[in-house]
Design goal:
Blueprint: E1 19-24, E2 33-38, E3 41-46, H1 50-55
Antiparallel strand pairs: 1-2, 2-3
């Protein structure tokens, strides 16, 4: 399976931005949509990883089962730098809903 990286924004360090992710996960084999908004403007629409899990040969050993999405994870990696203390991300107003 081939993945295409698409740069969707270059944000200026030191300037506050509002980034909004909207994920609509549909039952079945297709139909998931993911929207990314930056500062109130929709910048891209894509899909979830569902198609990868269903179709990629790497996942055949596990039966190409799509894992259940039941949490949201924000993760930062790498070695910390004390000069960056207090200059991280503010994550606010996280909302999740299911039906």
């Amino acid at each position: 399976m081939t993945f295409n990286d698409n740069e969707i924004a270059t944000l200026t360090p030191g300037v506050k931005h509002a980034v909004k992710f909207v994920m609509d996960l549909a039952p079945g084999t297709h139909g998931d949509t993911v929207q990314i908004h930056i500062d109130g403007k929709l910048v891209t629409t894509g899909s979830s990883w569902k198609y990868y899990y269903q179709n990629d040969q790497e996942q055949a050993e596990s039966g190409n089962k799509v894992p259940v999405t039941n949490c949201l994870l924000f993760q930062a990696r790498g070695t910390g730098d004390s000069a960056d203390q207090g200059k991280g991300y503010l994550i606010d107003s996280v909302q999740m809903a299911g039906s």
